[in-house]
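User: Hey, my collaborator sent me this sequence without any context and asked if I could get a structure. I don't really work with proteins. Can you help?
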Amino acid sequence: MNYGPMDLLGNIGVVGLVFTYLMLQLNKLSSDGLAYSLLNAISAGLIVASLLFNFNLSALLVEVFWVLISCLGIYRYFRLKSLRSETLDG
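Assistant: No problem. I've predicted the 3D structure and written it out in structure-token form, which is a compact way to encode the shape of the chain:
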């Protein structure tokens, strides 16, 4: 097995996902916070990038959905932040 730069990216993504989940379980991150969704999206995105070079359909599908769901969390964070500021201003 050759270990290349894309393998390294994928491994960084895996460490990022595990770290993010650990921080959630230790109550260091909130599941509705921006950091949680950003870390998940970035980490899963790194895994997706590595899978494009060493293809595995099942893993790719899981990670693509992980990115999409994390993007939903990012959207919800900014949408709720916007609604809160409108409430305070109005």
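In plain terms: The mean pLDDT is 96. You can pass these tokens on to your collaborator as they are.
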